[in-house]
């Protein structure tokens, strides 16, 4: 009977379920996707010629230092870890790049959470991550925006400062914010006709590398950032890839284990439902109940089987939820262990060596501990 | 299907992601709305608004949270607004609001969906939602429990109870 009811509901649903997808898409004004079609060779030839022409015009711009300006606006976190946000025109986060090894770890955590999100949200997520890992305890916090447009830069820097001041750290009483601006610097920036943030970074680079400011001020933002933080881009990418690869590997083992737990719950759910259906249809359930008790020896049937099954399912859910919680904790811990291990190594060692990841083999479902 | 990724891609205007999100959630969205507004035509209108909102606000979706729950919360809120608006405009002097809204639908639909309309009348909103999320939208009890923030045993019990009520209804009304 239960099955018939569900069957009937499904049939009726087909009859009344509206299909408004196209109406919504028309309202949303999605661009119509172009169907794949074989075009005559002539069009292909013309397209290729057009592409060559575009490349011919654009290539010098792309490879010249002036053309490769990188992002127009950057927000640099110079704490240790060091990393930089590249912003879109609307000040949302376009990309996040680490500028030192510890930056790789932080970026690994925050990047999936903040790309395309607002700057305010991204700063909050970053500060929380830094605070959680104890990076705000003794370090001074220098966060600086640099942008071609001085007015925009000032407004972004004010927003950053406000966020820094409003942030309530858990692991330290107060964060030590470094004021990167001075009246003196403002005059110098005006002299070079650049924004204050850009001047600050160019001056930092000049001081660090003993280059004259006249030279560093002519560089683009991306080059300044790379030189300032000694970023060996190729080596850095290699390290990032290596860490990503190992973390992905560990993540897939973790997900597999998590699914294992969820399957236990799904199976139990099906077994309970089968029993309830028998009960509902007033069929003989004694055989099924015995095999259920055999399969789940901790199930105790009392007077009201329905209620007992509900209680049992809730009880098992709590246990499995706890197990998954433990598994997640363990996963985070394993990840931190990898980071800790890597911090003691130099870049070449990381690239050439093996990174051990947790296999969770010793992490088995054991409900006895949770009574 | 990774709805999280789809929501992220949708915020970048990816049309294919919209198709996937619609396919994966439209049944649930429709029945959540229907459970509140109790009228198919209103549910259809409201459903459009819900998916428009999902598209426009997809950037606000917080990664790591339950994407279905996020979409269904939008659906619930939209339906409640619709309900309040409808109540103000139509039902200021009618006591059995539910019945009025059900009877506003075309007779044809009522006959086509006799049992669904019976479910709307006979079940509580929560029981109807649980039944439809489990049996029509096809989510696992575990997923429904997460979406509705209640223990899995309760979901199973309520789903079973809903079936029992419908069974009695059919026995009485043929």
Description:
The complex is a heterodimer of chains A (371) and B (174). With 371 residues, chain A is an alpha+beta fold. Chain A has helices at 2-16, 21-28, 41-63, 101-114, 119-132, 150-166, 183-191, 196-209, 213-216, 221-228, 233-280, 286-295, 305-343, 347-352; strands spanning 73-78, 82-87, 93-98, 140-147, 176-177. Chain A is built from 14 helices and 5 strands. In chain A, strands 3-2-1-4-5 form a 5-stranded mixed beta sheet, with helices on both faces. In chain A, helix 4 packs across helix 5 and helix 8 packs parallel to helix 10. Chain A is elongated, with a radius of gyration of 30 Å. Chain A starts with a helix and ends in a 19-residue tail after the last helix. Mean pLDDT of chain A is 78; it is low at 32-46 and 54-70. Chain B has 174 residues and is mainly alpha-helical. Chain B has 10 helices and no strands. Chain B has helices spanning 3-10, 15-37, 40-57, 67-90, 97-104, 107-112, 114-122, 125-135, 141-148, 152-173. The N and C termini of chain B lie far apart (40 Å). The longest helix of chain B has 24 residues, at 67-90.
């Amino acid at each position: 009977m239960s099955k018939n009811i569900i069957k009937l509901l499904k049939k009726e649903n087909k009859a009344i379920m509206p299909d408004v997808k196209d109406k919504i898409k028309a309202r949303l004004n999605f661009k119509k996707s172009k169907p794949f079609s074989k075009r005559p060779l002539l069009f292909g030839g013309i397209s290729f010629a057009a592409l060559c022409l575009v490349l011919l015009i654009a290539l010098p711009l792309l490879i010249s230092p002036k053309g490769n300006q990188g992002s127009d606006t950057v927000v640099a976190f110079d704490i240790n870890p060091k990393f930089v946000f590249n912003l879109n025109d609307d000040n949302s986060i376009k990309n996040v790049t680490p500028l030192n090894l510890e930056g790789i770890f932080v970026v690994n955590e925050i990047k999936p959470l903040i790309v395309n999100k607002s700057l305010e949200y991204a700063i909050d997520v970053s500060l929380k991550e830094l605070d959680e890992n104890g990076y705000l305890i003794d370090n001074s916090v220098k966060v600086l925006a640099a942008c071609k447009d001085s007015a925009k830069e000032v407004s972004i820097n004010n927003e950053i400062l406000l966020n820094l001041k409003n942030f309530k750290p858990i692991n330290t009483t107060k964060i030590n914010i470094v004021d990167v601006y001075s009246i003196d610097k403002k005059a110098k920036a005006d002299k070079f006709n650049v924004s204050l943030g850009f001047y600050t970074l160019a001056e930092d680079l000049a001081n660090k590398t003993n280059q004259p400011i006249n030279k560093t001020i002519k560089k683009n933002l991306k080059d300044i950032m790379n030189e300032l933080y000694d970023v060996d881009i190729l080596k850095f990418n290699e390290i990032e890839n290596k860490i990503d690869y190992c973390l992905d590997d560990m993540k897939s083992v973790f997900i597999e284990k998590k699914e294992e737990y969820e399957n236990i719950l799904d199976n139990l759910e099906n077994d309970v439902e089968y029993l309830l259906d028998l009960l509902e249809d007033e069929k003989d359930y004694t055989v099924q109940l015995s095999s259920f008790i055999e399969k789940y020896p901790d199930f105790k049937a009392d007077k009201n089987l329905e209620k007992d099954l509900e209680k049992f399912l809730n009880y098992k859910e709590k246990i499995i939820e706890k197990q998954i919680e433990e598994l997640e904790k363990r996963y985070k811990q394993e990840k931190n262990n990898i980071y800790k291990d890597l911090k003691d190594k130099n870049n070449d060692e990381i690239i050439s060596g093996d990174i051990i990841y947790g296999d969770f083999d010793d992490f088995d479902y054991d409900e006895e501990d949770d009574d | 299907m990774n709805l999280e990724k789809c929501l992220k891609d949708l915020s970048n205007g990816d049309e294919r992601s919209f198709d996937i999100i619609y396919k994966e959630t439209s049944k649930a969205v429709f029945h959540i709305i229907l459970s509140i507004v109790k009228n198919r035509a209103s549910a259809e209108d409201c459903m459009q608004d819900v998916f428009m909102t999902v598209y426009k606000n997809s950037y606000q979706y917080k990664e790591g949270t339950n994407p279905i729950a996020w979409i269904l919360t939008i659906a619930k809120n939209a339906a409640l607004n619709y309900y309040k608006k409808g109540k103000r405009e139509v039902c200021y002097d009618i006591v059995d609001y539910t019945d009025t809204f059900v009877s506003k639908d075309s007779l044809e639909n009522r006959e086509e969906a006799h049992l669904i309309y019976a479910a709307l009348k006979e079940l509580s909103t929560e029981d109807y939602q649980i039944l439809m999320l489990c049996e029509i939208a096809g989510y696992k009890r575990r997923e429904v429990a997460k979406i509705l923030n209640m223990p899995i045993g309760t979901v199973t019990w309520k789903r079973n109870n809903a079936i029992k009520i419908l069974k009695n209804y059919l026995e009485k009304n043929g």
